[in-house]
Design goal:
about 240 residues; single chain; alpha/beta; about 25% strand; two-stranded antiparallel sheet; 9 strands; 7 helices
Length: about 240
């Protein structure tokens, strides 16, 4: 969830800023906690092809499948849709104020407060969502997090994620008057990482391409863990 290609009505348009001294995870956690009510009012419905991406993620999954939502925010609209389709959802986010809204609205799900870098992803997931979240983390941790997702998925499991649309150096930008950190590999590099982990892309496309201005682009990926990766025998070790 972020301003890397986020819709204009969710942000104040400003020039990306130099990186401050505060740790990225702390900056983003504090910022999301401060804007929780505004974010909840703004981020309540799908936009673009998001519903199609989620339907591709869920294709063939039986009801009551275990789905992990990393960077779940307030649970809308993604976890809400997953729950409505009859699945078991665990949402993980480091922003306590976002999680408080999610718990109150969707008590049937499990909500966990944690940094994604620290969260021990459980085995046996049928699908994992990491939507508008990965680019809030320093790119140095992306490969390891993707590998942990692969190791936790059942054979044939699927992931849905977004990455930034360019390899712009890490930067900060503002949303609802608060400063957020962003960093990303090129989409092509992320696709290579996923391929090395045994994923086959089902959808890989720009939601919005990068421009010469503020927008660094945003890229959507839905991928399936190859059946030959059963029991993790063909997967690469954690980097």
């Amino acid at each position: 969830m972020s301003g890397w290609g986020e819709r204009a009505e969710h942000e104040k348009r400003r020039t990306p800023q130099a990186l401050p001294e505060k740790a990225p995870f702390a900056m983003n956690r504090e910022a999301y906690n401060r804007i929780a009510p505004e974010w909840d009012r703004a981020r309540f419905a799908f936009y673009g092809r998001e519903r199609e991406y989620i339907d591709a993620l869920l294709e063939g999954l039986p009801r009551r499948s275990a789905i992990l939502d990393l960077g779940c925010g307030t649970g809308r609209p993604i976890a809400e849709y997953l729950l409505a389709r009859g699945h078991r959802v665990t949402g993980v986010d480091q922003a306590a104020q976002l999680l408080a809204i999610a718990r109150a609205r969707f008590p049937e799900a499990t909500w966990i407060e944690s940094r994604l870098e620290d969260y021990a992803i459980p085995a046996g997931c049928a699908a994992i969502v990491c939507w508008d979240t990965l680019f809030h983390l320093e790119r140095s941790v992306h490969a390891r997090l993707l590998a942990r997702m692969a190791m936790s998925l059942d054979s044939g499991g699927r992931i849905m994620l977004t990455v930034g649309g360019s390899e712009h150096p890490a930067f900060t930008d503002t949303m609802f008057g608060e400063t957020f950190f962003y960093d990303s590999h090129l989409p092509s590099r992320v696709l290579v990482m996923l391929g090395e982990l045994g994923f086959e892309p089902l959808i890989a496309e720009f939601m919005n391409p990068p421009t010469s201005g503020r927008d660094k682009g945003r890229y959507a990926i839905v991928a399936k863990l190859s059946d030959h990766c059963r029991d993790g025998t063909k997967r690469r070790a954690l980097p």
